[in-house]
Write a structure and sequence with these properties.
Elements: H1 23-35, H2 45-57, E1 61-62, E2 65-66, H3 73-78
Antiparallel strand pairs: 1-2
Length: 91
């Protein structure tokens, strides 16, 4: 990971640009963020997988990003209060 990474359990480095991270480090950082979401904010596992299934079928998915809003769909799907930005939303 980058030099600015805090060693605290629930802190994710916010000082790195994506271009400064290797692909492996970037994805690790994203999954650490998802894993450390407060349980009350996190989508349940079954709902998370259902959301991702809908995203996999969507024409707006490109390299893990939603072309409608620019989010990384795995992060958006992991947050319970978020929804699909489509009109109408898929989830």
């Amino acid at each position: 990971m980058c030099e600015g990474v805090e060693k605290e359990k629930y802190r994710v480095c916010r000082k790195c640009l994506l271009k400064d991270l290797s692909e492996k480090d970037y994805f690790q950082n994203m999954y650490v963020y998802i894993a450390n979401l407060p349980e009350d904010d996190r989508t349940g596992k079954e709902e998370y997988e259902r959301r991702l299934s809908k995203c996999r079928e969507c024409d707006h998915l490109l390299n893990g990003m939603c072309r409608l809003c620019g989010c990384f769909v795995e992060m958006r799907a992991a947050i319970a209060l978020r929804h699909c930005p489509g009109s109408p939303p898929e989830w």
